[in-house]
Each structure stands twice: as structure tokens, then as C-alpha cells.
Write a structure and sequence with these properties.
Radius of gyration of chain B: 21 Å
Strand content of chain A: under 5%
Oligomer: heterodimer
Largest sheet of chain B: 2 strands, antiparallel
Helix content of chain B: over 70%
Radius of gyration of chain A: 15 Å
Distance between the termini of chain B: 41 Å
CATH class of chain B: Mainly Alpha
Number of helices of chain A: 1
Distance between the termini of chain A: 51 Å
Number of strands of chain B: 2
């Protein structure tokens, strides 16, 4: 069970990092376009 | 912007399919569930290598053509490459703890060469942020981007050149050492991560285009409309 949790957590953290970067790019582009 | 949305949606679907393949493959006889990290660790490092290769291409093309688009491609690709290197290092450490009993070995050539590559490309980003003049920034980062790529084959072949905890390549000219289900899960995720890489680089290029346009307008309008830089603000 703990193996599954570690693997699931690793996937989750990795995907979260990519999603955070995509959101950051979206916000940065919108702010730049408003200037 | 629509192009970015289409690519992001495509990437989300592809990564979803990749995740399904990774989670439904049977667990490994020795490594158990940890073998499922094949669906994220090698694809992340593949994207990092691809990204730094594209950066080298963009850098060399900028040095030849001196056009903004090549500089934008090179710098955008580095950012995405650094993120995927970080994911590769993190997932590798989790896997290392499970299989080797340690997340890190400071004397391991594969681990250390990957870490050095990560810091060199962080340095590339820092270099760009330290230079205001767009032409000087493009030239200096192009030189670094073209040279730094030598680390990619060094990292990849470090497992063959030195004694290391890390295993050698699973896919060789004479075949694969992995079961077909795991090989398929890794291959699907590599394709999915490549689509994700393209989507992120295109999105980053869009940001760079708008910011470059803003910078040009500020230059035309003069200093009066430029926001103050932190270094110019006096304490009050």
C-alpha cells in the first residue's frame, strides 16, 4: 500500500509542477497583454 | 492563443492516456509498484535532452541568422527543459530510495552529471535575466546554449563510461531488457511528454512575443513610460 502511495504521490507532485508552470505562463501572458 | 489551447488539450489527453498505460501495466517481480515510475522518469529526462538539443539548434541558428525567433525558441526550450530535468531528478531520487536504498550518491557520475546540467541551464536563465540589451542577451545566451549541449551525451552515456549505481540503457540495438507492457507504457509516455513539451514551448514563445512587443513599444515611447527597476528605486 505504501508503495502505491509513494508512486501516486510522485506522479501527483510531478504533474502539479507542470500544471503550475502552464498556469504561470497563462497568467504572465495575460498580464503582458494588458500592459 | 487558440493554438496554445489546442496543443495543451492535446497534451492533457496524451498524458492521460500515458498515465493509464503506466498504471495498468503489471507490477514488476522485483521492484513491485515502483516500476511504474518508468512512465514518468525516463520520459521526463527524454524531454529534458530534447529541450536542450532544441536550445542548441535555436542558439546556433541565432548565431547564423540573428533573428529573434531563434532566440525565443532557444530560451523558451531551456525553461521547459529545466522543469523536466527537475522532475527527472525528483522521480529518480524517489526510485533510488526504493531500489538502491538511497535517494542520492554524491559520487555517482549519472546523478552528478545530471545535477551539473540542471545548474548550468539554471545559469542560462540567470544570464538572460541579468542582461537588458536584447541583442547582447541573445548573443551571450546563444553561445552558452550552443556549448552547454555537450553535457547531454555526457549525461546519457555516463552509465556506459563510468561505474554507477544507475542501470545502463534498457533499450539497445540488440533489443530491450524490459517486458513488453512496461516498454509500451514508457513509449506511450515518451510520445505524450513530447506533445506536452511542444505545447509548453509554444505557450512560452507566445509570452516572449508579447513581452518583446511591450519592450519595443517602451523603447519607442521613451523612458517616461518605462516602469522603474528595483535597482533604481531609492529607499523612502
Amino acid at each position: 500500500m505504501s508503495e502505491t502511495l509513494v508512486v501516486a504521490g510522485t506522479y501527483l507532485i510531478s504533474y502539479a509542477l507542470v500544471v503550475a508552470y502552464a498556469v504561470y505562463l497563462h497568467v504572465r501572458r495575460r498580464r503582458a497583454a494588458q500592459r | 492563443m487558440t493554438r496554445v489551447r489546442v496543443l495543451m488539450s492535446l497534451a492533457a489527453v496524451a498524458v492521460g492516456i500515458g498515465l493509464w498505460f503506466a498504471l495498468t501495466a503489471p507490477p514488476d517481480a522485483l521492484q513491485g509498484e515502483y516500476a511504474r515510475l518508468l512512465g514518468i522518469h525516463p520520459p521526463s529526462m527524454w524531454v529534458a535532452f530534447l529541450a536542450f538539443g532544441v536550445t542548441a539548434l535555436g542558439s546556433i541558428m541565432w548565431l547564423i541568422k540573428k533573428t529573434d525567433r531563434w532566440d525565443r525558441l532557444a530560451s523558451s526550450s531551456v525553461e521547459v527543459g529545466v522543469i523536466f530535468t527537475a522532475i527527472g531528478l525528483f522521480t529518480g531520487m524517489v526510485w533510488g530510495q526504493a531500489v538502491w536504498g538511497t535517494p542520492w550518491d554524491w559520487q555517482d557520475p549519472r546523478l552528478m552529471s545530471t545535477l551539473v546540467m540542471f545548474f548550468v541551464y539554471l545559469g542560462y536563465i540567470a544570464l538572460r535575466n541579468a542582461i537588458d540589451d536584447p541583442t547582447v542577451r541573445a548573443r551571450r545566451s546563444a553561445i552558452l546554449g550552443a556549448i552547454a549541449v555537450v553535457q547531454v551525451p555526457l549525461v546519457y552515456f555516463s552509465v556506459n563510461l563510468f561505474r554507477t549505481l544507475h542501470q545502463t540503457q534498457s533499450i539497445r540495438p540488440d533489443g530491450s531488457t524490459m517486458p513488453d507492457e512496461m516498454l509500451l507504457a514508457m513509449a506511450v509516455n515518451m510520445v505524450a511528454f513530447t506533445i506536452l513539451y511542444i505545447a509548453l514551448v509554444v505557450a512560452r514563445i507566445e509570452v516572449a512575443k508579447v513581452e518583446a512587443e511591450n519592450a519595443r513599444e517602451e523603447a519607442v515611447a521613451g523612458e517616461a513610460v518605462r516602469p522603474p527597476r528595483l535597482s533604481e528605486v531609492e529607499d523612502v
